[in-house]
## 1
Amino acid sequence: MTEKALASPNSANSSQTTAADNKEKESAAKPQEQEEEIDIDLEAPETEKAALAIQNQFRRFQKKKK
């Protein structure tokens, strides 16, 4: 079979939309909200301490999960 022959049955199904397609269309129709720019100093000692604390908590969570 050729690609065109395979595409023909699929083209009939492509006219039907799924819930996911509808959500994509709705999000595209809404105006995009501006994302807030966050300026974090990744070299700051406080940021490094916070990152290590978050990583440690996540590792503990992963151990408990097993």
Note: The longest helix spans residues 45-65.
## 2
Amino acid sequence: MKSKMKTIILACAIIGLALIMIKFPKDAYEASIRGLDMWWEIVFPSLLPFFITAELLLSFGVVRFLGVLFEPIMRPLFNVPGAGSFALIMGMASGYPTGAKISARLRQEKQLTRIEAERLTAFTNASSPLFIFAALSVGFFGDAKLGLLIAVCHYAGNVFVGIIMRFYGRRQERRQKQARKSSHGFMLRALKEMHAARIRDKRPFGEILGDAVLNSVQTLLMVGGFIILFSVLSKLLFLVHLTPIIAAGFQIIFQMLQLPLELALPFISGLLEITVGASMISKESIEPLFTSIVIVSFILGFHGFSIHAQVASIISETDIRYFPYFIGRILHGIIASILTIILYKPLYLNRQAFDRDNLAVSAPISENDWMASLSILKEIGPLFSIGFIFLAFLILYRRHIKHVK
């Protein structure tokens, strides 16, 4: 009975969405174009190099090498193997959903247990520096100095989540007692692990590179689909006045927390899609700015359901469960908000006063650098995206012809 009810609810929801799209075709089209532009101008070209590099490093055993080196750090702090350091570093450098992608690959290669993979997935997804400094701080709020505050709170929040999640699943985990290896000669052991991993992979270099491109493009096509879907969904929910209704309920919570009620609607939009919510918050021009940044920090930590859907799709290929990731996102949002409250004065207000007193010019230079990077991506991003999608189809075609022969 429960399964039938679920089927009916899902069918009604999809039919309702289709009817709304028919009623508002122009708005749905414009939202779809906005999502597509974001994907092929910024997301695809900024993530693809990291995805391909991650695939190659995994194939050539470099992650095994890093696993031995970082085991003394990752195990005591986060209760995951040293190989998890690769997901942590790449996730912070390139942005979501890179951390989930690498965590899933490490699980598929059995470098992690299921519990360890769930811990790792919960804290290795983060927003990219490009989005925080260029799009968010400069593009939306017009203040490059906000970038440092938001970035420190965001990345430190992720680390704190990792430390908390180290206690997750300890009762379920079957501990395999292994003899402690001496730390002497750990570099030699790391090199041996890397060499052994490379030898085990019998594929020629051309095939490894082709697989890296294909897997990366396939994942990014899925990511693009979710970005477009949630861009449309966010717009349609607003048009049928469902988002404002939900926001009205959140106004009670905002009132209890003494937050501006005007931020309730942008907050709900941000829970669906980060970029939309952050943009709406910046346009509200709430004074003091402090409250807006606290809300933005929570949204960045929570990731938005668009990112949640991407992560859920990626880990569905493994036995990694979604719920620990969801809990990790709530924790990240709360911790990042608390850190923003604590660090707002020393990392933002005090820096503003120091720059005024010393007539510093470092902020405009930093602002120009980040905006130049974003501008370059928007100019060459579409060509880059189309080029690699064509390359992926070409590789598939050649392999199909070879298989037929």
Note: Residues 173 and 360 are 53 Å apart (CA to CA).
